[in-house]
């Protein structure tokens, strides 16, 4: 096993998780000339073999991450497991000196994310989340329009979709908030250019829902500077579905703008006509998130999904869930304070002195 080398022409990548998203990531790897697969890992070896064979990859398959990293070269690892497995897989890779690009959420809880942040910092090994929906031509044009309008004070999105996934999502307690809403929450941070401070949220389960848990939610976030972000979403909305990025509207000092979540961006200034904003060509989705991550390995800027930055999007999810459970507004500072205490206790109990010391430097706040 060899850790990442800055400026390498071709990097060896281990893909962990051979489900639907794992296969999507494998297709991205296959499409690139700067990556080559070195192993596929899945607790179901038959799934790993099938996924590799479908792509004509002659690579070993494993059902254990640690074993894979001992046997094959790994310049980076793609963590595409279920959320509950994210911490363990990422920890194993970081301890082996292998940078990790993880599917969201980086961990199920803010406490786990703080613990992993401390591990990443103390080991000097990059860990980032793929917030792939930050990367699209549409959202870039929308953000540019908002800046042209002088920033914004009110932002809202509607997300209504009806996927029949089957599998773990159907059994989650909060499938929409935990597995999907983080995308729109992260997009709101990107568009507002500021950080969330509090949230009031209600989640519920429509009578016709096919999910065990709450598949619908409405939330309002207060951001620094006083901006508000409103979210309304459902994963059991048949008919008139939005795009997978949602349907967005923003109000700014110089006017208003909308984005349909795909390629239609419109803007209107006070007293003026409606303008259709051109949408340029940019790298999008998984490929863009991977490009950003590889640039960081080559000495570029940290990726936007670097764990200490992305943890704020995860905290939005956790705070929204807490608000829904308690029926009260939740301050994100309180989420970080409790998570810090929990992560510190975890590190102390495990005798992880370096991690505990790093957590103390953040004094109960977000990682810095």
UniProtKB/TrEMBL annotation:
Supply the source organism for this entry.
Answer: Microbacterium croceum
- Family to which this protein belongs: Belongs to the Gfo/Idh/MocA family.
Q: Specify the superkingdom.
A: Bacteria
Pfam families with a match to the protein in the record: GFO_IDH_MocA, GFO_IDH_MocA_C
InterPro entries hit by this protein: Gfo/Idh/MocA-like_OxRdtase_C (IPR004104), Gfo/Idh/MocA-like_OxRdtase_N (IPR000683), Gfo/Idh/MocA_Oxidoreductases (IPR051450), NAD(P)-bd_dom_sf (IPR036291)
The Gfo/Idh/MocA-like oxidoreductase C-terminal domain covers: 170-332
The chain positions of domain Gfo/Idh/MocA-like oxidoreductase N-terminal read: 13-127
What name has this protein been given in UniProt?
A: Gfo/Idh/MocA family oxidoreductase
